[in-house]
Amino acid sequence: MSHVVPSRERAITNARDGIMSHAQSLFTRGLTAGSSGNLSVRVEDGYVVTPTNASLGRLDPTRLSVVDFEGKPVEGDAPSKETVLHLAMYSARPQCEAIVHLHATHSAAVSCMCRLPEDDCLPPLTPYFVMKIGKLPLLRYRRPGDPALAPDIRAAATRGPAVLLANHGPLVSGKSLEAAVYAIEELEETAKLFLLLRGSETRPLNADQIGELRATFGEP
To answer: What structural domains does the chain harbor?
Structure first.
């Protein structure tokens, strides 16, 4: 007699497998270091989240955290202290199924700069940034995991899939974990371009070009 795996168990296993694969890739390519960064995936009764103080390069799938919709631990190790930031973005973007937060070098560097436009802190240098991120709000500094950031994230995330936390790094949502990873990678590459081009005259995409992208590919 065959064993039928319950849908919840299967969903959690699939989420853990996806997190393991993408987390290892992000770590190996230097997009996160030490125990920084966290990933989460929505499941039917909550979220699977990377644990607190865990390296994305050395995760144990059996110890990944499972929390309910209020963030209360259900299984695994204690969840990342920044789970509260993920919950805020999920609440603002019910269409998103996964979230990635990194301290990637170039986007973290941009987050430390002064006098950037807070409503959109990176220019539309490439069509791929427009297609995957759109506008990038810069949120004021709060300590990592501070629940006081949640209202700011909820307000900003209603307008787009990503925010940049001042002196910290990006938080990016996606319709799948793969989509969220691709989007945060595009954000990091655009931040790198932005820093490389500082002091040079640039040619960001204009309103007509951005409008054409959105008409063709939709909103991020």
So the answer is: 7-217 (3.40.225.10)
Annotated catalytic residue, options 47, 75, 128, 186: 128
Average pLDDT over residues 124-142: 98
- 76: DSSP letter: S
Strand, coil or helix: what is 30?
coil
128 is catalytic: yes
pLDDT at 6 (0 to 100): 76
Whether 182 is catalytic: no
Exposed/middle/buried for residue 81 (C-beta within 10 Å: 0-12, 13-18, 19+)? middle
Q: Which two tokens stand for residue 182?
A: 């691709």
What residue ranges in 77-137 does DSSP mark as E strands?
98-101
Reported as a single tens digit per residue, the pLDDT across 72-101 is 999 999 999 999 999 999 999 999 999 999
Q: Which of 47, 82, 90, 185 is catalytic?
A: 82
Residue 5 in this model has a pLDDT that exceeds 80: no
